[in-house]
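@channel sequence for tomorrow's demo:
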Amino acid sequence: MLMVHKVNLKHLATSLAISLGTGMLSGLLTMGGMKTFESINKPPLSPPGWLFPIVWTILFILMGVSAYLIYEENPRVLSAGLVLYAVQLALNFIWPLLFFNAGMYLFAFVELVALWVFIILMIMEFAKVNRCAAWLQVPYLLWVTFALYLNLGIYMLNA
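structure tokens (generated this afternoon):
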């Protein structure tokens, strides 16, 4: 039987604002980065630059909904999953600054590995609370896995 829960629009909007706001701020701070990205050597399967904002917007929406679901399980307790969520969101924010603004491809790769680990830990914690919230993070994990390949390839081709 499908369980229908009342949506707390204020909490959902706050969660979406946090995730999308993080992505937007990072995007604004690295706005010129796509010009650099277009000019460097890239590994096979590199998507066109215009695809990144579309994919990241979808992923940040999924992140926000997922965090909302975890928060709504017990809004009075800061769960381990939400702490991991905050850490991975901070790492997500830092990566484009390292990659695009600083051009530190190897350091960005190492930071991306840390992000990948925190996403896995977050998914594991989310699964203990709400399986749907955990599954909403899987596309993000897959995209960051692909980003690891791209980042390492770019480092190797441009070092």
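heads up for whoever presents: The CA atoms of residues 22 and 135 lie 21 Å apart.
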